[in-house]
């Protein structure tokens, strides 16, 4: 390919013609703008529509940026992308005019400007299909806002034509700006040098660029060097591997660039899962998934290296899942599975499970320090070294956090990990020790009316004496072996944990000084002054204690045979799991953490034995199956109860079959059909209780194990290069929503429930340095039997949206990215008359890697300083009204999200 010497400059066009074209383009642009402005007087509706895109810098930036990007892409993109934007924007305008509820619109508009700016700066190119999808996605939100602004009396057609024309002009401005820059360079360089044209061809998702080599001799021909750039596909696409659409894998690379405010948020990498908090930082998080309020962990199985984190028959609630011992930098992988469709998962896994695996060897030793708002600091040292024939991994962490509360959390935590492991070809083993200890002051939820009346600030507790402390120590050993014929895994663990927790959710509902003045000396004097004195909780109030101390032991063993059925490849697994918990817990009456009574006190011995079997067979290139069955047998023994009638021993067991069918792949797309039976386990105290320990009235014992049923239809596709999308439609029935309420020491009965929903998860890596993810979850939850109070399941999550972007090695070493989390409104009582507000948070991380040994990072949480609730409840309580009396009744009780906060730190690698 040659470029002959001439005086025409770039593209063989005479420089004088450039000046003519520039003048003509400027005149045309001026005319196109002037004519609509003259027509403003003709139609007010048209004028309003035309003005709207011009009145916001976010609209201006995005629409001009789309034009510039289209001009950069050249070819059909110059007309296709603006046309796509205008068309989809019009549909969004109709949705806005019809007042359809669309969450996070303003944030999406804000992100669109940032996204297209990055595309322009980095000259990012996708396939034509992806270019159109990206533009269409953001165009809908811009159109939606335009549509919302139309008045009820305005002409929709006239208003729409107005903002469509304005948008077209802005796109044209962007295209013109890009071309003007190119033409200006051409004019400047045309009489000085002779440039060579660069050809760009796009085939599929592979971009081929042709780079020109400049020559001093203008008569010489130019040889063109071809460079091929391919988009990096996500390594864990799971096509031909996964057994369901809602199964996934998360690696350290996806964790290290996420802003994480607390360890429990690691679980939010599971699409649709929310980990929030309604108390002090040391307490287990509150979890939501698939229409379930999982409380502190019920019905979602969490494991660390195969060791269950959920605690049975816990003093504060069944399935207590305290993840504060996690060190995010040591997490190598997180594997999640949803639904009770997997034979290796039993107790607590009705909605799903997550298994977190720590590294055996770190890529580099690290020392990290972070400091930030509200007296936050964190220090971490971790590394690994060769020792003998194996590897020694260590990690030590210390954290302090006061939080924004008027009574600071004074949260102080120490974490430690020590692991020794060896690998010898076809076999290996490891021993892991973990230890954590923490204490804190709680900031439990407070009544909304108490804040509205000025009694307390939204960051102030009513009872400042709430708090707790905890300890957790564990030892795990495992051995594994694999050869061409089989694989064997053995694991045993021992765990000691202790918790002292003090909470007050109802304040003076039970201990009302007007009717029960005993132990409330001086309270009436304090209230009579019209000043609320928090010190009254030192001698009065409804505070209760929930001490829990236990030893947990267990083992897991599995053996897999690799064989054939006919000519089909197959593997069959048999496994056995055992767990034993020896527990001492109680529900006590306290004031300022000083005990003055006992509601109930128990010694619990709970054991389970679970054999299972599973077969996975690939019958041909497009069909494979997984068939499994599991038996779970339990023994529940309660002794030493302060109410003798509540002592007892019960046994129960269930058989749970599982089935999975996988079809494909066709066009890098697989289809899944899964179903299985599972169960919800109840607290050992609830299934043996005959007398309510608080009221002394007889109660009916609860069923030990309650059946659950789940099914799922899904699809997983990597058809678009670099994009992995999964879509699943799921259904889950429970025979009872019955739970043991640790705060009351008794069982709360409920009706059978039904939940179903849709989940859409996306992970896109267009380049080596940039990744986008967007997950959408929608759930419908109702009781299956009618009742006068209503059929809504309280606190059942309906909508969860999580999205973000991560980048690394950009502009010399920058890394980080923003994250968005939307937690939709929820019914708080059965008739849906009381609903929570939505929670919307945006956070971000930005860091710079100075060299391979040193980097700095900054994190900002709740960027927009939203005044949302982290969690909301609706129940009865009683508290002072600052006029000498009390307010008593049902109210919204909430725990606020923390205001905007910052953290700065550095990481040294050695």
UniProtKB/TrEMBL annotation:
Compartments (UniProt record)? Cell outer membrane
Extract the signal peptide range: none
Segments passing through the bilayer: 20-42, 54-71, 78-98, 104-121, 151-170
Give the CC-aspect GO terms. cell outer membrane
Q: Which part of the chain is the TonB-dependent receptor plug domain?
A: 249-352
- Keywords per UniProt: Cell outer membrane, Ion transport, Iron, Iron transport, Membrane, TonB box, Transmembrane, Transmembrane beta strand, Transmembrane helix, Transport
How does the entry describe its membrane topology? Multi-pass membrane protein
Gene Ontology biological process terms from the UniProt entry: iron ion transport
Keyword flag Transport? yes
**Record-annotated TonB-dependent receptor-like beta-barrel domain positions:** 462-863
Concerning InterPro entries, the annotation shows: Beta-barrel_TonB (IPR000531), Beta-barrel_TonB_sf (IPR036942), HupE_UreJ (IPR007038), Plug_dom (IPR012910), Plug_dom_sf (IPR037066), TonB-dep_rcpt-like (IPR039426)
Look up the domain of life of the source: Bacteria
Protein family:
Belongs to the TonB-dependent receptor family.
Alphabetical list of PANTHER family matching this protein: FERRICHROME IRON RECEPTOR-RELATED, TONB-DEPENDENT OUTER MEMBRANE RECEPTOR
Q: What is this protein called?
A: Protein HupE
State the species of origin.
Answer: Methyloglobulus morosus KoM1
């Amino acid at each position: 390919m040659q470029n002959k010497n001439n005086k025409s400059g770039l593209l063989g066009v005479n420089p004088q013609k450039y000046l003519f074209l520039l003048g003509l383009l400027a005149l045309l642009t001026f005319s196109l703008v002037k004519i609509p402005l003259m027509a403003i007087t003709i139609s007010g509706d048209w004028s309003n529509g035309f003005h709207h895109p011009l009145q916001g810098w976010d609209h201006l930036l995005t629409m001009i940026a789309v034009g510039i990007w289209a001009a950069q892409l050249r070819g059909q993109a110059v007309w296709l992308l603006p046309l796509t934007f205008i068309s989809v924007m019009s549909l969004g305008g109709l949705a806005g005019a019809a007042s359809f509820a669309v969450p996070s619109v303003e944030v999406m508009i804000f992100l669109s400007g940032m996204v297209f700016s990055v595309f322009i700066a980095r000259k990012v190119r996708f396939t034509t299909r992806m270019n159109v999808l990206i533009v269409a996605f953001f165009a809908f939100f811009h159109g939606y806002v335009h549509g919302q602004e139309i008045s009820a009396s305005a002409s929709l057609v006239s208003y729409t034509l107005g903002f469509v024309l304005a948008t077209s002009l802005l796109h044209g401005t962007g295209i013109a700006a890009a071309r003007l820059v190119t033409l200006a360079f051409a004019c400047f360089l045309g009489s000085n040098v002779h440039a060579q044209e660069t050809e760009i061809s796009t085939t599929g998702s592979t971009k081929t660029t042709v780079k020109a080599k400049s020559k001093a001799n203008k008569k010489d021909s130019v040889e063109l060097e071809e460079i091929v750039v391919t988009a990096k596909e996500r390594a864990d696409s799971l096509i031909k591997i996964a057994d369901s659409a809602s199964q996934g894998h998360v690696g350290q690379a996806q964790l290290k660039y996420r802003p994480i405010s607390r360890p429990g948020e690691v679980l939010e990498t599971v699409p649709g899962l929310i980990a929030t908090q309604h108390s002090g930082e040391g307490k287990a998080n509150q979890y939501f998934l698939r229409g379930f309020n999982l409380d502190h962990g019920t019905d979602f199985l969490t494991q660390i290296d195969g060791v269950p984190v959920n605690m049975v028959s816990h003093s504060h609630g069944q399935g207590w899942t305290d993840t504060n011992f996690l060190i995010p930098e040591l997490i190598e992988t997180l594997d999640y599975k949803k639904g009770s469709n997997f034979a290796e998962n039993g107790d607590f896994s009705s909605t799903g499970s997550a298994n977190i695996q720590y590294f055996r060897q770190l890529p580099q030793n690290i020392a990290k320090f972070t400091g930030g708002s509200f007296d936050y600091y964190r220090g971490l040292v971790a590394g690994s070294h060769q020792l003998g024939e194996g590897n020694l991994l260590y990690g030590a962490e210390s954290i302090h956090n006061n939080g924004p509360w008027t009574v600071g959390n004074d949260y102080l935590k120490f974490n430690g990990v020590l692991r020794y492991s060896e690998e010898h070809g076809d076999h290996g083993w490891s021993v892991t020790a973990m230890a954590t200890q923490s204490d804190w002051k709680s900031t439990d939820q407070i009544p909304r009316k108490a804040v509205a009346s000025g009694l307390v600030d939204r960051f102030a507790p009513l009872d400042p004496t709430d708090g707790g402390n905890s300890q957790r120590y564990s030892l795990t050993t495992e051995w594994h072996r694999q050869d061409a014929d089989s694989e064997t895994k053995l694991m045993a663990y021992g765990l000691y944990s202790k918790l002292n927790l003090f909470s007050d959710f109802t304040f003076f509902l039970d201990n009302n000084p007007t009717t029960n003045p005993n132990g409330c000396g001086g309270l009436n004097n304090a209230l009579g002054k019209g000043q609320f004195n928090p010190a009254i909780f030192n001698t009065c109030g409804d505070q209760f204690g929930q001490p829990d101390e236990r030893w947990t032991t267990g083992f897991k063993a599995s053996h897999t045979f690799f064989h054939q059925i006919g000519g089909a490849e197959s593997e069959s697994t048999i496994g056995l799991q055992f767990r034993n918990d020896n527990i001492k817990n109680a529900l006590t009456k306290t004031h300022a953490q000083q005990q003055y009574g006992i509601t109930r006190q128990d010694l619990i011995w709970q054991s389970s034995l679970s054999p299972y079997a599973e077969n996975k067979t690939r019958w041909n290139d497009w069909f494979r199956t997984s068939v499994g069955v599991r038996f779970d047998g339990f023994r529940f023994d309660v002794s030493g109860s302060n109410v003798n009638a509540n002592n007892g021993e019960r046994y129960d067991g269930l058989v749970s079959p599982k089935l999975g069918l996988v079809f494909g792949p066709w066009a890098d797309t697989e289809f899944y059909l899964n179903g299985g039976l599972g169960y919800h386990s109840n607290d050992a105290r609830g299934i043996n209780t005959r007398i309510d320990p608080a009221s002394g009235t007889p109660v009916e014992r609860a069923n030990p194990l309650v059946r659950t049923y789940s099914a799922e239809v899904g699809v997983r596709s990597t058809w678009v290069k670099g994009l992995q999308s999964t879509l699943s439609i799921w259904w889950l029935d429970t025979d009872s929503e019955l739970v043991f309420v640790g705060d009351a020491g008794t069982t709360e009965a409920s009706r059978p429930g039904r939940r179903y929903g849709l989940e859409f998860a996306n992970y896109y890596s267009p380049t080596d340095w940039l990744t986008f993810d967007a997950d959408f979850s929608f759930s419908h939850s109702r009781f299956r039997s009618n009742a006068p109070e209503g059929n809504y399941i309280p606190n059942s999550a309906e909508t969860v949206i999580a999205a973000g972007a991560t980048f690394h090695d950009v502009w010399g070493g920058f890394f980080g990215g923003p994250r968005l989390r939307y937690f939709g409104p929820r019914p708080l009582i059965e008739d849906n008359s009381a609903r929570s507000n939505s929670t919307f948070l945006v956070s971000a991380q930005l860091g710079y890697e100075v060299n391979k040994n040193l980097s700095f990072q900054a994190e900002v949480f709740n960027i927009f300083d939203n005044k949302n609730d982290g969690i909301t409840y609706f129940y009865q309580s009683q508290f002072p009204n600052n006029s000498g009396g009390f307010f008593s009744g049902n109210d919204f009780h909430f725990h606020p999200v923390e205001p905007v906060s910052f953290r700065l730190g550095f990481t040294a690698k050695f």
